[in-house]
Amino acid sequence: MDNFTHGLAGWALGQAGLKRMTGLAVPTLIIGANLPDIDAVLSVLGTQSLALRRGLTHGPIALLILPLLLTAAMVGFERWQVRRRKRPRSRLPVRPVPLLILAYIGTLSHPALDYMNNYGIRLLEPFSPRWFHGDTLFIIDAVLWTILPLGIWASRRREAAGRNGWERPAQAVLALALVYIAGNFTLSAKAEA
Questions:
Q1: d(CA 84, CA 101)
Q2: Is-above-0.90 flag for pTM?
Q3: Residue 183 confidence (pLDDT) above 70
Q4: What is the domain range of residue 140?
Q5: Rounded Cα distance, 86 and 88, in Å
Q6: Cβ-count burial of 171 within 10 angstroms (0-12 exposed, 13-18 middle, 19+ buried)?
Q7: 3-state secondary structure of 138
Q8: Which of 14, 62, 106, 136 fits as disulfide partner to 116, beta carbons 3.0 to 4.6 Å?
């Protein structure tokens, strides 16, 4: 998937209520949702570097380590803001364990979405170069680009108005996205059969 969709997925997860767990939850989910694509910096090396894409940083070792590094960076950012007296007073306290859980959720959402397109991922790198793909979504999916921002917008609008249940629109679009993905998966499976 494209990074815009990954970011939207992380943001929607936060607006669906996960941001109540700790301060810096939404940035952690958004960054985590994009973090495995750090291998994209290899593209500056030329077309041969494409052979390295969606490999090591999408495999089990990276998926275990990247959330730990992200959590350390976010806790470090929090401490830096406190030292400089720049920490927003309205932000929830940053709690490392919930932040680590969110870093894992965001980071693991990345290979889950990348698996859904026909390009796929090498989920077992460095142990196996085998590609996995679900042939379910387009790399840039207009439906997800439409429904995820709408749910985030509606959720944030309700939250800003102080209304109860502000997380419901984001929860609804995440559920709708899952139904859409399941429907596409079913259609792809039938077409393949």
A1: 27
A2: yes
A3: yes
A4: 3-192
A5: 6
A6: middle
A7: coil
A8: 136
